[in-house]
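User: Can you predict the 3D structure for this chain?
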Amino acid sequence: MNQLFSRQNLPLVIPALIAGVAIPLSTALINIGTGLVVLAALAMLYTPQGRSHLVQAFRQPFVIGCLALYAMFVLGMLWTAEPATAGVHMLGKMRPYLLAPLIFAACSTRAARQALLGGFTAAALLSAVVSIASGLAQHPVMKGMPGDYTVFQTHTYHNTFLALVACGILAFWLAGRIPPAWRKVSALVFVVCVVDILFFVSGRTAQGILLLLLAALVVMWQGRRGVIFALAGLAIALPALYFGSNVIRKGIERVQVDVSQYQQGNAETSVGLRFYFWQHAVILIKQAPWLGHGTGSYEKQYRELTQQYKGEFARANPHSDYLWLWAELGIGGVLLLLFMQGTLAVQAYRLPAPERWVGWTLCLCYASSTVANSFFTDNVTGTPYVLLGCALTAGRWLSREPEAAKA
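Assistant: Here is the predicted structure, written as structure tokens:
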């Protein structure tokens, strides 16, 4: 701890700590923390080591993937109908991917990685404790409501961040990397996160993602045998959760009701609106499947389409980044989004377990979640993706290995 907050490390540690704490707590603070990390990385350029870190960052697969994705949005400005308004706004939304080299360079220092990931874990645990306390008292606070006791972020984001923390702890536990003195505390944090997700907060997407990630970790740990263990665990857990968790059961029932109402012509439900958005996004994609309609064009094209079809629900995005990027940037946008995700998996592969497993869970979490959400393009999740991706894969966290990731 003294080494982490040494005078030499403070210029990087404090911005990284602020950025990590901000992720589960405040979208505005995420922007502030990210800006401070970028400024700290720029200040590093006055030293030979800092310049070396930045040069190495440009050689990393994940950074290359982030820059390639951003370059596609820049290229899409050439044919968009909204270059000076929505197009520029979209480039601003995607700025974390442009800043990835500087963020990765800052995270090349182990102290910065530890500060960012430690701050993220502590803030996520705080949100879980407050959530459970408000649920037990049946008194929602901040963004919570009766039966859905989220706190600082909406339920999908709240649960997603807790799922990442829980899976990170489990990965280190399975790899035998948690010291005996910390095992009880780690087990308690894991249980608090999982209980809050499954019993107190109603984010259905993230609840499913948690179970998926836990099963995937078992497979990473045990290989082929892990597939059997994971399937057996899910076969036991799913019925138990359905009958044991009021939150899970009501969530499933709401999905059934939403689908039924959509089939009857009522799209004004959580699931129904997604079906409605996806249906019209596919129409836009068919109009320009190869190049798309251009950067930032989705909202305008969607509004014109829904007016043409006498639609009722306006929306700036289709609640799926795969559809969004295809509609705006064509097939190349989808391929580059998949490529960028793949570079994170490759970057994580360079590390030993459990850091490798945690990197893969982040990749799997976002790849799955963004099917029905805008995880890569929404600021509240897109910026954390770059921050966590860099911190998770820039090097090992706790061991005394060389600081920088291999080129």
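Residues 402-407 have pLDDT under 50 and may be disordered. The two ends are 29 Å apart (CA to CA).
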